[in-house]
């Protein structure tokens, strides 16, 4: 397979909204059979922490889910006659403080279902447990979720070789590290589910954070890109407060390793738009992502 490496610099224009497909009631499963690894404290009850005066996204509020102690996956399946066997685990962002659960979770599931993909929204632990490895608990939950989904592949009628991961902002860090660590499980195996591979077959990182050292264009020293790293799709705005180097540098490393990647850098758009369409071209990234998935033969 020849590497695909595309950079798009796009200026603003007006677009119509994406078609809306309402995802059905999901099947919800706990990620862990008991207490997640490393948990020692009891947090307040899980709750939406959105305030009345919080910034609206495309004119609408978002769910800011906080104090998550029981990680779960919510499985949204497309209609049987539309399902194509591909699945994606979705990691919402929120700075490892909260989860933007609808904006970067359930709304993403609706889009994926609309193109025949089984969508799995991961509710990972927040706030961060370890200030020195803020991604630690989130990556543990994401790795376990990958194994859990793959262990149900036959039952859910998905291809175990076409299970990807998608993440936004801090969720992009979570998804990216899950893809980059591949088989480096960040916790001790707890049951037979952990005998199943944690490796995503592809990754989609949308305005991802946490790939480079703060204030630099250098990847963290724990990030290693090899020829076995999964293919990746990136979308980022050049004026994002989260440095565009998070995708530029990682995409460059993928190119050097001969790993297929597609990179879309938009002139403007900022941060935290999810899939909500505005007059900013960056909010049309799902169309480009779907085209990439077709190119990679992940969907028809």
From TrEMBL:
Q: InterPro entries from the xrefs?
A: AB_hydrolase_fold, BD-FAE-like_dom, GDXG_lipolytic_enzyme
Top EC class per UniProt?
hydrolase
Signal peptide, first to last residue = 1-23
Q: Where is the BD-FAE-like domain?
A: 75-189
Q: Which domain of life is it from?
A: Bacteria
One Pfam family, short name? BD-FAE
Keyword terms of this UniProt record: Hydrolase, Signal
UniProt name for this protein = Acetylxylan esterase
